[in-house]
Fold each of these.
Amino acid sequence: KQEVTQIPAALSVPEGENLVLNCSFTDSAIYNLQWFRQDPGKGLTSLLLIQSSQREQTSGRLNASLDKSSGRSTLYIAASQPGDSATYLCAVPGGGADGLTFGKGTHLIIQP
Amino acid sequence: NAGVTQTPKFQVLKTGQSMTLQCAQDMNHEYMSWYRQDPGMGLRLIHYSVGAGITDQGEVPNGYNVSRSTTEDFPLRLLSAAPSQTSVYFCASSPRLGGLLSILAKNIQYFGAGTRLSVL
């Protein structure tokens, strides 16, 4: 059974810092990996999707990398801003046809 | 473009009551699913559907029923609510391609805003 782990569970940093969120998965036979953002009381918003043939995907200040062989992905946030405060979730395909297996998330707080 | 719409946003039930959580999408997506999110557990798949008339169970299906009579709608029914079903419920949808193309597809999933359910 696929398991997804996210480290750290929570992170609080001053505004302007660059930071890295980590995601690991147990079954490397995945065809993509998604990073989502969840704001308090809201739904999930897809940030980046990396296909298995890619090693990196970038969107603005966000960069996600994927190393299938080691079962790891990282989300790099450059020049963090208070508006980046949210919970970040990593998910890989697992069960239920196109269903996803999620990590428990990293709760990020950017201090002004 | 409304995306994925869930109703109601909040609901309080008494143990034993039944109710239906509504989910509708206007993107003509074939794949729809329901997740529940609990503190310390992450999101877990309840039921899913790969098209109208086709549904199947996910990781935690007990106590829930689903049906898919149209492409747009995928309601989740609680037959007899229990306190253990207190949770936040999310509906999601995505396009689905068959065969080899699904391996290459960027099948980004779109989520609704959620329904917060309390069972007393």
Note: Chain B touches chain A at residues 4, 31, 33, 40-43, 45, 48, 50, 56, 58-59, 90, 92, 94, 96, 102-104, 106-114, 116 (CB under 8 Å).
Amino acid sequence: EVQLLESGGGLVQPGGSLRLSCAGSGFTFSTYPMAWIRQAPGKGLEWVSRIHENGANTHYADSVKGRFTISRDNSKNSLYLQMNSLRAEDTAVYYCVRDGGMATSLGDYWGQGTLVTVSS
Amino acid sequence: EVVMTQSPLSLPVTLGQPASISCTSSQSLVHSNGKIYLNWFHQRPGQSPRRLIYNASNRDSGVPDRFSGSGSGTDFTLKISRVEAEDVGVYYCMQGRQWPPYTFGQGTKLEIK
């Protein structure tokens, strides 16, 4: 059974940093691109970032470019999101999402999400 | 950036009746490989989204056959043949043809009348 388990969310002050983690299991983690998608309270879904299977290629939404860094450790079946210079508008539930690549595109499996709250 | 537009945004439906959601993209979602990169998701209150349909018309594993997806180019439709109570929530379309960024529709909230 495919599982994605996020951790690392919490309350942080504006300008602060937070690192999210996602542990994947039940599939060959190193063969799938992975992504982060977020959802602000009461709002829709927003794609945040994507990383290639080997970690070489990364992409970001304009809203987080230069502040967030996606990475992965395939030896640990783990995905990360380093979030710096956090703003109130970054407050959201952050989902770790598997990407099916050219076969089916994004979103066949989602984690349960981790809440990030940016507030003083 | 490809803009995704859903309608309606609110959809009250009687149990057992059909429902239909439209999604329009600002650019064609057909790839040169022949695949259509349009996915549909369902999010129940308090839960993570779940993918229902990939490549415009393929049901994901475990998705009831009352759900169907159709369309090509820039116009797509999600249909529910007979709405059940568990179908309430918000439905999103998403394009994966021209990225970054992947983009989602605004969401359609289905409720039972």
Note: Chain A has a mean pLDDT of 97.
Amino acid sequence: DTEVTQTPKHLVMGMTNKKSLKCEQHMGHRAMYWYKQKAKKPPELMFVYSYEKLSINESVPSRFSPECPNSSLLNLHLHALQPEDSALYLCASSQGTSGVRETQYFGPGTRLLVL
Amino acid sequence: DAKTTQPNSMESNEEEPVHLPCNHSTISGTDYIHWYRQLPSQGPEYVIHGLTSNVNNRMASLAIAEDRKSSTLILHRATLRDAAVYYCILRGDNYGQNFVFGPGTRLSVLP
């Protein structure tokens, strides 16, 4: 099974709402990633977890809060978002954490609209 | 970070070969060249990677210039399902876990 699943597929939220995005993989991968992708732009790295510990935070605003409850699961908690945060949020995983030959496996993404 | 440059868009006819170029003139000796593609409404997917020698797999071939300052992804027979954005990415020891996507090349395949 080489699948990364993400839920929900679509999410509409108001600026005062709190919501969470969920990502799951059962490949035994020890690194998991969150990316943000605006329309017609490439994905941009937000967070990296290695062995369930946050290892990279690319200066992401605190209204985005990642969580890695176990090695298979990655959450992104959203609170007080702005309309400009509307984007496709992609989750990915890789077997190791720093190998130059690592392949990343991506989920289909959650398309978020902030009103 | 070493940068890659790719054409914004390319067009191909179905069942013809496609050569997607990538320039990476500041590549370091230990950087690997990775290619990913993103089909419409999907997350990126791995295509191929290499260091110095040309590489083949079931999806594509990767031709790497002798000086490693450029590479070409080759799709041997384009199908309509190959229409996607193709990203050329460098991965090296200096980047750690950073995975930096450039703008990529949008490939259109005409029937």
Note: The interface with chain A takes residues 30-32, 36, 41-46, 49, 85, 87, 91-93, 96-104 of chain B (CB under 8 Å).
